[in-house]
From TrEMBL:
The gene is nifS. NCBIfam families: FeS_nifS (TIGR03402), PRK02948.1 (NF002806). The keyword DNA damage does not apply. This is Cysteine desulfurase. It catalyses: (sulfur carrier)-H + L-cysteine = (sulfur carrier)-SH + L-alanine. Homodimer. Catalyzes the removal of elemental sulfur atoms from cysteine to produce alanine. It comes from Candidatus Merdiplasma excrementigallinarum. It comes from the Bacteria. InterPro entries: Aminotrans_V_dom, Cys_deSase_NifS_bac/arc, Cysteine_dSase, PyrdxlP-dep_Trfase, PyrdxlP-dep_Trfase_major, PyrdxlP-dep_Trfase_small.
Length: 400
């Protein structure tokens, strides 16, 4: 099997499993218990907090564990909006956010809030001039993702943070795809709230965190006990948190070297696909993108059909976000870039990881070429297109 869907989830690193095992056996105490078995679990949780904070240039006390990145997004948006409802009920986000943010914004609109959805340019970058114009006296929150989960485009977080800070507005970023992949110095970038998830960086599923900047009085989202300093009730997932902490340490140690390696393989993949497959295009910014992300559209091809053919050859890729798998609708991200519905439906996301090799990229490119040609050979639209390209009076086909 060739696994090239690391944006959906990653294989847990062996070092992460090793860090989790003690919490599943002898160190099983409840972190809230006062006896030594519990305090050892509390120490494990606090060590993970510190490890994650170091990557962000934050204090460990600013890290609050959740059950997922989605929960962290919901907490950030709903609590920030509700806490400030007397000040205003206007929120700004972008049209290409993950559904964890978009659906939360839709919910808040049902509760009487107004949401402005910013456009993006052809590369998927938020238009800063439109952001400035969208700010109102009653704007209480700006939420723009750090990097897009489908096309990998990295947003200008520092500039967005400056704009938010200038107007005294909280700035939240969904960093589920970006955390551990690129540097995210939260203080320098002016970020108030940041969401992330462990399973995107070779950690376990079922654990995430929300960074809450000191001084931001975000209220609880889940009520009950006094865990997470009274801000997130529920017994901590100690084993998952231990794994997250170790995964964060590894990400910090490997980020530069792994990023450079994935970037080289990614660029090699892009050159081959665009150079060897006619009527293909790269979606997202050509340079300002996550190291391992590539997203292509192939005309006259249905992305899901291509995915199935590749799966039959043992190659795992996707057509977009795993959270929208099975949807018949074209990607809202690709449509926001200005792609037609047909082109958006012909997309394929290939995301590399720490185990990806050059040989796997070569095999994948050959499989994509072969199966794109196979699907196009059965497409009446492609046959009509080729017929229109032939010179008048010629029966010869076009060479690509």
């Amino acid at each position: 099997m060739i696994y090239l869907d690391n944006a959906a989830t990653t294989r847990m690193a062996p070092q992460v499993r090793e860090a989790m095992l003690p919490c599943l056996s002898e160190r099983f105490g409840n972190p809230s218990s006062l006896y030594s078995l519990g305090t050892k679990s509390r120490e494990t949780v606090d060590e993970a907090r510190k490890a994650i904070g170091q990557i962000l240039g934050a204090d460990g006390e600013e890290i609050y564990f959740t059950g997922s990145g989605t929960e962290a997004d919901n907490w950030a948006l709903k609590s920030a909006a509700l806490d400030q409802k007397e000040r205003g009920r206007h929120i700004i986000t972008s049209k290409i956010e993950h559904h964890a943010v978009l659906h939360t914004c839709r919910y808040l609109e049902e509760q009487g809030y107004e949401v402005t959805y910013l456009d993006v340019d052809e590369w998927g970058i938020v238009k800063l001039s439109q952001l400035e114009r969208a700010i109102r006296r009653d704007t209480v929150l700006i939420s723009v993702m750090a990097a897009n989960n489908e096309i990998g485009t990295i947003q200008p977080l520092g500039k967005i943070g400056q704009i938010a800070g200038k107007h005294g507005i909280l700035f939240h970023t969904d960093a589920v795809q970006a955390f551990g992949q690129i540097p995210l110095p939260v203080k320098k970038l002016g970020i108030s709230l940041l969401s992330a998830s462990a399973h995107k960086i070779y950690g376990p599923k079922g654990v995430g965190f929300l960074y809450i900047k000191k001084g931001v009085g975000l209220s609880s989202f889940i009520h009950g006990g006094a865990q997470e300093k009274g801000r997130r009730a529920g017994t901590e997932n100690t084993a998952g948190i231990a794994g997250f902490g170790r995964a964060a340490e590894l990400a910090g140690e490997e980020m530069k070297e792994r990023g450079e390696r994935e970037r080289k393989l990614r660029d090699y993949l892009i050159r081959r696909v665009l150079g060897e497959i006619p009527y293909s295009r790269l979606n997202g910014h050509p340079l300002q993108r996550l190291p391992g992300n590539s997203n292509f559209s192939f005309r006259f091809v249905e992305g899901e059909a291509l995915l199935i053919l590749l799966d039959m050859e043992g190659i795992c890729v996707s057509t977009g976000s795993a959270c929208t798998s099975g949807s018949s609708q074209a990607s809202h991200v690709l449509l926001a870039l200005g792609l037609s519905d047909e082109t958006a439906h012909g997309s394929l996301r290939v995301t590399l990881g720490r185990e990806t090799t050059g040989a796997e990229i070569d095999r994948t490119v050959e499989a994509i070429k072969r199966n794109v040609a196979k699907l196009r050979s059965k497409s009446p639209a492609y046959a009509d297109f080729l017929a229109r390209q032939r010179p008048r009076g010629s029966s010869r086909g076009i060479r690509f």
